[in-house]
Amino acid sequence: MTLQSAIVGTEPASHNPPFSRSEYDAVVVGSGPNGLAAAITVARTGRSVLVIEGQDTLGGGTRSAELTIPGFLHDVCSAVFPLGIASPFFRTLPLAEHGLEWIQPPLPLAHPLDDGTAVVIDRSVQSTAANLGPDAERYADLMGQFVSDWPTLESFLLLEPLRAARHPVIAARFGLRAIRSASSFARGTFEGARARAVFAGLAAHSVLPLDARLSAGIGLVLGILAHQAGWPIARGGSSSIA
User: Fold this and answer.
1) For residues 111-131, b (16+ Cβ closer than 10 Å) or e, as one string?
2) N or C of the chain: less Cβ packing under 10 Å?
3) Per-residue DSSP letter, 181
4) Alpha helices, DSSP H only, in the chain?
5) CA 27: distance to chain centroid?
6) Is residue 9 predicted with pLDDT exceeding 70?
7) Is the pLDDT assigned to residue 4 strictly greater than 60?
8) CA count, 13 A, side-chain hemisphere, 12
């Protein structure tokens, strides 16, 4: 397996790269997670791959830098990676052998409220539900079922969409909720402000308006993963992943 990288972004436009097209079977432009995943996938077939990155460091969204105090790293873009553990593709990579260490916080996340309190999502569905007042039972039933369904959901959400046809009940149970907007789902599912607020915080990671269709799906997946896999961070910053 041949996988090489070149940092060429700081070179003048007229500079000739130190390689020729004929030397590689594939060239991937951009060394973010998607680019690196694509390069590894191609390289695993026995083909040679060149990864070209225009910035001074590799990583794309998984990049860290000393933005304030020397020696103190900040994640420039992404910082928390539930799919770093839960992704079927990531699980095939021997990243630990190359020094990657995941840190799991005791609580995956907390959502602050205007009254000074916060809603906490625990790894335990039941412990989380206990924080949600009138929505405790509803949350426990909903998320408990989805966490149990995750091995099947993972297969058609992250691997082969057509597998959903093999599990129509599970696919429908998730899909009919995921296709909704986050605001519609939260109002239709939960009674209290605490459950609605924490779901809005999850769904906001979709970078969609909360009244946009499918934004509920992002909130559901991130909530499921908080219980199923946690929301880990990479020791040494997200650049450690790259």
Assistant:
1) beeeeeeebbbbbebeebbeb
2) N
3) B
4) 33-43, 82-86, 88-91, 125-129, 136-154, 168-178, 182-189, 193-203, 215-228
5) 25
6) no
7) no
8) 2
